[in-house]
Design a protein that fits this description.
Layout: E1 11-15, H1 18-21, H2 34-40, H3 56-70, E2 74-78, H4 81-84, H5 94-109, E3 113-119, H6 125-129, H7 144-158, E4 164-169, H8 171-180, H9 191-216, E5 221-227, E6 231-233, H10 238-261, H11 269-272, H12 280-284, E7 290-294, E8 299-303, E9 311-313, H13 331-343, E10 349-353, H14 371-389, E11 394-400, E12 419-421, E13 428-430, H15 432-443
Parallel strand pairs: 1-2, 1-11, 2-3, 3-4, 4-5, 5-7, 6-8, 7-10, 10-11
Antiparallel strand pairs: 8-9, 12-13
Helix pairs in contact: 3-5, 7-9, 8-9, 8-10, 9-10, 13-14, 14-15
Keywords: Carbohydrate metabolism, Cellulose degradation, Glycosidase, Hydrolase, Polysaccharide degradation
GO cellular component, one term: cytosol
Protein name: Beta-glucosidase
Length: about 450
């Protein structure tokens, strides 16, 4: 598309998550989380761990400097629940809150707006172990109160300086891969009911946390972050069309329609009837100020029995694939933003994650010339520009991720960062993609 100028005030930045970059897992009283146990069970593909990761816990000033040098004005980070409450309830660890104090102050000194996410998957292990009547962790209602209390504790410490708060990150991924098929922590294979219970209880906890913060603080921007990916059928066969619709309900609508509309998708209502109680729909709906969107690709789905909801991945139609074997489909981001405008009242949204892993190579000049990632960002920003031109209420774009990091079950092998991290030396090297995004952020033009 022709050159595009982003509107005044459009925000640029990067996102990270605590578990993927902080390291220091046994420092300053931090408790254990479900990913610690999952790793200890030998379930990380490359055999690595997040014990050090990017050592951001000790090196955050250097990482803030990278954000500032890029011209980024916003940074979404997550707070590690087990740093703040080592057991998930009760006693607060002041050294954990002290760390986030230092991080926030450093961001503000650099002119960067902090966007805090309360939960990016590092659930305190004791909450997972404390099985209530419906199960532990996100399987039951016992987690709702503790999450709201945790939100209240963190906001009480930081809300004088942090004005933008996201509750959850990708509840669908937590539910499906953590509780449904066992590929993520805590590693359960509970099938359809495990997935739907985890989705619903995250919705309820999110609603409780939003209300807890709003009751005690004014002038904040409150929201959440959802991974939204259009679900399209593998073929025009009726069974594949129906499978894609079912997957859309699970992947997108439980979370999206829950917080925005207080609705349970009709396709799933019967399956969820046993644990959706009177008043739940009202409890999960909340008039959020800002919705974060994580987008990576469309999802091409087909009917295949033997999997949850009788759905499985089909063969995507695309020209290129990332190093994660994910399809590159920037047009799907435009479709998603357009649907939010026409079907959901055009809420204020920002791109909270968009990025790609490739097998980066350090060139002879010591740099990383990641042309595929540059192209990926350019094409997705073109989709954002097109959506903006048509009136979509997009307020900013944050890449995933600032740093190469611990990529969950893949370990350290997959690199999403616009800054390379040498895990042996912790040297940071900005890639060509970093310089590309920096140029766009500083000029406001694509």
């Amino acid at each position: 598309m022709p050159s595009f100028t982003f509107p005044p005030g459009f925000r640029w930045g990067a996102s990270t998550s605590s578990y993927q970059i902080e390291g220091a897992l046994d420092v300053d009283g931090r408790g254990s989380c479900v990913w610690d146990r999952f790793t200890a069970q030998g379930r990380i593909q490359d055999g690595t761990s997040a014990a050090t990761a990017c050592d951001h816990y000790h090196r955050f000033p250097e990482d803030i400097a990278l954000l500032k040098a890029a011209g980024f004005d916003s940074y979404r980070f997550s707070i590690a629940w087990p740093r703040v409450q080592p057991t998930g309830t009760g006693a607060v660890e002041p050294r954990g809150l002290d760390f986030y104090d230092r991080l926030v102050d450093g961001l503000l000194e650099a002119g960067i707006t902090p966007m805090a996410c309360l939960y990016h998957w590092d659930l305190p292990q004791p909450l997972e172990d404390a099985a209530g009547p419906q199960g532990g962790g996100w399987q039951g209602r016992d987690i709702i109160g503790p999450f709201a209390d945790y939100a209240r504790i963190v906001a009480a410490r930081l809300a004088d300086r942090v004005k933008e708060w996201m509750m959850l990150n990708e509840p669908n991924v937590v539910a499906i891969f953590g509780y449904g098929v066992g590929e993520h922590a805590p590693g359960h294979t509970l099938g359809e009911q495990g997935i739907l219970r985890a989705l619903h209880h995250q919705n309820l906890a999110q609603g409780a946390a939003l209300r807890a913060i709003a009751a005690e603080h004014s002038g904040l921007t409150l929201g959440t972050v959802l991974n939204l990916q259009p679900s399209v059928p593998d073929s025009d066969k009726p069974e594949d069309v129906a499978a894609a619709a079912r997957w859309d309900a699970v992947w997108n609508r439980v979370s999206l329609d829950g917080v925005l509309r207080g609705e349970i998708p009709a396709l799933l209502a019967e399956k969820m009837d046993s644990f959706v109680l009177p008043g739940d729909r009202e409890a999960i709906r909340y008039p959020i100020d800002l919705l974060g969107i994580n987008y990576y690709s469309r999802m091409t789905m087909k009917h295949e029995e033997g999997h949850p909801f009788d759905v499985w991945w089909g063969e995507a139609q695309c020209r290129r694939w990332t190093g994660m074997a994910w399809p590159v489909q920037p047009e799907g981001l435009y479709d998603l933003l357009s649907e939010l405008r026409t079907g959901y009242g055009n809420p204020a949204v920002f791109i909270a994650e968009n990025g790609c892993a490739y097998d980066d190579v350090v060139a002879e000049d010591g740099q990383i010339h990641d042309a595929e990632r540059v192209l990926y960002f350019r094409e997705h920003l073109e989709s954002v520009a097109q959506a903006l031109a048509e009136g979509c209420n997009v307020t900013g774009y944050l890449c995933w991720s600032l740093l190469d990091n611990f990529e969950w079950a893949y370990g350290l092998a997959k690199r999403f960062g616009v800054v390379r991290v040498d895990y042996d030396t912790q040297k940071r090297t900005p890639k060509d993609s970093y310089h590309f995004l920096s140029a766009v952020a500083k000029s406001g033009r694509l």
